[in-house]
C-alpha cells in the first residue's frame, strides 16, 4: 500500500524528468505495487482509487498548461493507462493463475463453488469422476443451488420447532458435502422403475430423501424466515406421502421433453398444487436448524435463486462419462472464485462471544480486541497518544487549510506552490486517503473488527507527522532566530520522547500481560486503563 503511494508521489513530483528512465521506473513500480496491494486484500481497491485521483489531478494540471502540445497530454494519458490500469490487471490475472494452479486440492469450502469448479480440485469426489450424463428415474442425486455460493438441498431427521409452520422434517441448504444431501428422483405416481426412463423437462416428479425416506413437500404454511414464501418440509413415510409432494421439473431455457442431464442442466422445481418455485433465500436459520440456510417455496416463479443443477448422479443402468467434459476455463474459474469471495466476505457473521466493533469506535480507540486469553494476555489496542493526537491534528489541519484557502481567494496568498505550503497539499491528499480507507466501512453490513481501521490509521499518522513538521517550520517566523533553532529541536525531542515513552507504557498489551486484570486494585496495568471500555 505504501509502495503504491510512494510511486504515485515520485511520478507526480518528477515532472521535470518526464518520460526519463527514472520516471518510467516509478510509473511501472506504482502499477506493480497496486497489483500486489489489491491481490492481497480487496481494500487495496481504495488505494487504487486514491492513486487514480492523484493521477487525474496530474493529468488535469498537464491539460491546463497551455504551453504544452496536445500530443504531450495524450502521451501522458496513454502511459498512465498502460502502467496503472493494464499492467496491474495483467499482474493480477497472473497472480490468480498461479493461485488457482497451486491451490488445486479439495477442502472444507468446496461446496461454495459450482459442480464444474469442484471437478478441477484434486481429492474432490467430482475430480476425475465418471457418472451418467443423463438423469433417469430411480437415480440417486444431489441438487446444488445455482446461485453463487449456493448450497446443497439437504434434510435430516430433526423437525421444525413448535410455532414454525407445520412440525414436519426440516429442509435446508448445506454448503458441505454430506450423505443427507442425497435424494432419489421418482415418478410422481409410482415407485416402480422397471425400465430405464430419462427425466424430461415438464415431467411431474417426487424427490425422496434417501436417508429419512420422506418426500420433498410444500404447503400453505409460512416459511421460517421469508414469511411471503411457503414452508418446505420432508413429509410421508417410506416414500408415501400426499399430493403436496409433487413437483414439476423444468429445464431453464429448454423446451418440454428435453432430457435432463447432470451438471449442465439448470433446473427449476415448481410445486404442482401451490404453483411456487423451490428456492433458497440464503438466510441463515437459527440454531434449531444448525444455522443452515433457509429453503422455501416462492409464489414468484421467476425467483433467480430457484435454479438448481444435479451434481452427483448415481445410476447403474446408464453408461458413465468422464467429468472432464464440464471443466471450466481459467476465466470462468477466475470470475466464480471472485463472486464467491465477495459473497462470503459480505456475509461474514461474528462467532459466539466474539467482540466486534463499529467504525465510530475506531478513531477514538474506544475498545480493543483480545488476541489471546491464556496465561499471557495479548490485547489489540491502539497507542492512545497516537490515536488521539491523530484526531486533534485532523481537526486542526482542516481549520488551517480552510484559512489558507480563504486567504488565497482574497489574494493574500498567490498559490500553494512554495515548499512550506506544499506540505498542506500533501496533508490534503493524506486526508483523502484516510477518508477513502475509513468512510466506506460505515456502509458495510458485514461484521467488522478493530483491525479494519489500520490502513486508514497509516494515512492519519502520516498526516500527523507532516502537519507537525509544517507547524514546527513556523517557529523561526514566530521567535527570534537566535533561539528558534533550539526551540525547534526541543519540540522535536519532546514529541519523540513522548512517543517512545507511550510505547514503553503500553508494550505489555502487545508482548503479553500476566497477573490480575486492570479492573483489580492490585494490577500493575490499572493506571493504564484510561477508558472503562478497555478490557485488559
TrEMBL record:
Subunit note: Interacts with Rt/POMT1.
Reaction catalysed by this enzyme: a di-trans,poly-cis-dolichyl beta-D-mannosyl phosphate + L-seryl-[protein] = 3-O-(alpha-D-mannosyl)-L-seryl-[protein] + a di-trans,poly-cis-dolichyl phosphate + H(+); a di-trans,poly-cis-dolichyl beta-D-mannosyl phosphate + L-threonyl-[protein] = 3-O-(alpha-D-mannosyl)-L-threonyl-[protein] + a di-trans,poly-cis-dolichyl phosphate + H(+)
Locations listed in the record: Endoplasmic reticulum membrane
Annotated InterPro entries: ArnT-like_N (IPR003342), MIR_dom_sf (IPR036300), MIR_motif (IPR016093), PMT-like (IPR027005), PMT_4TMC (IPR032421)
Keywords, alphabetical: Endoplasmic reticulum, Glycosyltransferase, Membrane, Repeat, Transferase, Transmembrane, Transmembrane helix
Lineage start: Eukaryota, Metazoa, Ecdysozoa, Arthropoda, Hexapoda
Pathway participation: Protein modification; protein glycosylation
GO cellular component terms listed in the entry, alphabetical order: endoplasmic reticulum membrane
Transmembrane spans: 23-56, 77-98, 385-403, 424-441, 453-475, 487-506
Family: Belongs to the glycosyltransferase 39 family.
Origin superkingdom: Eukaryota
Protein name according to UniProt: Protein O-mannosyl-transferase 2
